[in-house]
From TrEMBL:
Its EC number is 1.1.1.35. The keyword Membrane does not apply. PANTHER family: HYDROXYACYL-COENZYME A DEHYDROGENASE, MITOCHONDRIAL, PTHR43561. It comes from the Bacteria. Residues 186-282 form the 3-hydroxyacyl-CoA dehydrogenase C-terminal domain. The keyword Lipid metabolism applies. Gene3D superfamilies: N-(1-d-carboxylethyl)-l-norvaline Dehydrogenase, domain 2, NAD(P)-binding Rossmann-like Domain. InterPro entries: 3-OHacyl-CoA_DH, 3-OHacyl-CoA_DH_CS, 3-OHacyl-CoA_DH_NAD-bd, 3HC_DH_C, 6-PGluconate_DH-like_C_sf, 6PGD_dom2, Mito_3-hydroxyacyl-CoA_DH, NAD(P)-bd_dom_sf. This is 3-hydroxyacyl-CoA dehydrogenase.
Amino acid sequence: MDIKKIMIIGAGQMGAGIAQVFAQAGYEIILNDIKEEFVEKGISGIEKGMKRRIEKGKMEESVMNKTLSLISPSTNYSDAQNADLVIEAATENESIKLDIFKQLDEFAPEHTILATNTSSLSITKIAAATNRPDKVAGFHFFNPVPVMNLIEVNLALQTSNETKEALEELGKSIDKTVIIANDTPGFVVNRLLIPMINEAIFILESGTVTAESIDKAMELGANHPMGPLSLADLIGLDTVLAIMETLYKGFKDQKYRPSLLLTKYVEAGKLGRKTGEGFFKYD
Ligand code: CAA
């Protein structure tokens, strides 16, 4: 399948990152969000990140200009009529995603693949909300998208082999490594990673050790590039909680219960880097 034009739904940290890596590889991008200012914020974030690389001497200015010129803003789902692939990276909320997919299904041409960057929700259920379930799959990136080399292609019960192969090929075309996994809550990475972060929050809650020491322990004792609490702040505590709740609900197993302290941070609006404060503070 020939994929040239890609629409991305959601211009937050994941959506903007996905837009950047595809535009940098020469794909035409339609970057969509519900408000113009959200799209502008996403594009200016991409520009800021690329300017930092130019300053470090790691990127030519012409690469940035070409990349930005390939990204067109959108606030209308009807723009899916021009896309060969749509990647949805909206907020991690099932009813919002189901509604988006119903609308995309209406506007997108018959050949268009509708993919979701969901971190844990049921792709099978999302696929069933459309009239093209065979052309729906998970296409899951990791934060920060320009740095992290993995893509999980997650297959709904209905995903066709053709869709799987098209996404696998596309992921390779932007120099990422692709793994294929069937649709289960959290897929592979988040089923392992997020309970580890949740356990770190349980340890913090027990008051036996500081947040700094928990992170140091995993950086130096397990060679993780950053500690679990800093990583939670990077991912966003609302997303971490949403994934734990999906694991808990999906597997119906106590071992996935979210920590109360995590819930309290989310209720307080301390969501990590994106709000300036989570387990740590950010400028
Ligand atoms: N965008 C683009 N590039 C970035 C970046 C960003 N947001 N953040 C860092 N980088 C680049 C830097 O420019 C630098 O590049 P060069 O080496 O070419 O100069 C490189 O990454 C390393 O960055 P730093 O030196 O600033 O910092 P670091 O060495 O501490 O690395 C990190 C930062 C890459 C974030 C590293 O700490 C790391 O890998 N952390 C773990 C991240 C992780 O586990 N992500 C997965 C989260 S789970 C997820 O996303 C899935 C989900 O569904 C929730």
